[in-house]
Design brief:
single chain; about 160 residues; mainly alpha; Arp2/3 complex 21 kDa subunit ARPC3; 9 helices; globular
Length: about 160
C-alpha cells in the first residue's frame, strides 16, 4: 500500500466512525428500534475506490473504533467487525462491475445478521418477520443508491491512489 492509500484508509475509517455516530439518530421507518446503517456504505465505497485490501481495512478499523472507542459503541457494532471487513474485501474484489460491487452491501447485511444471531443479539425468529425483511430491503436499497451516486463523485479525488484493476 502506498502512503496515499494509507491516508485514504485513515480518512475513510474516520468517516465511517463519524457517519456511525450520526446514523444512530436516523431510524429505519420500517423496523421499530432499528437505524439506517449508512456507515456501511463507507466500507463498500472504500473497496470500490481503493481495492480489496483498503476496503477490508476501512471495515476493520472503522467498525472496531466505532464498536470499542466511541460513546455509541455497542455489541452490534462489535459483532459487525468481521462482517464489515469481509464486505469491504468483497466490494474491492467486485469493483470492476459497478452494480455488483454496490450490491456487496448485502454481504455485510447477511453476515451481520448471522453474527447477531450467533452471538444472541438477534433472535433468529425475528429475521423471518415481514417488518424485518422490509426494513432490511429498504436499508439495502438506500445503501445501494448512495453508493452508486457517491462513487462517481469521489473517483476523481482518489484517482492516483487506486491500484490497477
Amino acid at each position: 500500500m502506498s502512503t496515499r492509500q494509507i491516508a485514504y484508509v485513515a480518512v475513510l475509517a474516520a468517516l465511517y466512525v463519524v457517519v456511525g455516530q450520526v446514523v444512530r439518530f436516523i431510524p429505519n421507518p420500517m423496523v421499530p428500534g432499528a437505524i439506517i446503517a449508512l456507515n456501511m456504505v463507507v466500507v463498500v465505497i472504500a473497496g470500490i475506490l481503493l481495492g480489496p485490501t483498503s476496503g477490508a481495512l476501512v471495515g476493520l478499523i472503522g467498525t472496531a473504533v466505532n464498536g470499542f472507542l466511541t460513546p455509541a459503541g455497542n455489541p452490534f457494532e462489535r459483532a459487525a467487525i468481521i462482517p464489515h471487513t469481509i464486505m469491504g474485501l468483497a466490494a474491492g474484489l467486485a469493483r470492476s462491475r459497478r452494480i455488483v460491487a454496490a450490491l456487496t452491501i448485502i454481504v455485510g447485511h447477511a453476515l451481520n445478521i448471522l453474527a447477531f444471531i450467533w452471538l444472541g443479539l438477534l433472535p433468529a425468529n425475528d429475521v423471518t418477520g415481514r417488518i424485518f425483511l422490509y426494513g432490511l430491503a429498504f436499508e439495502t436499497l438506500v445503501g445501494v443508491i448512495v453508493i452508486l451516486l457517491t462513487v462517481p463523485l469521489l473517483r476523481p479525488l482518489v484517482k492516483g491512489a487506486t491500484p490497477a484493476g
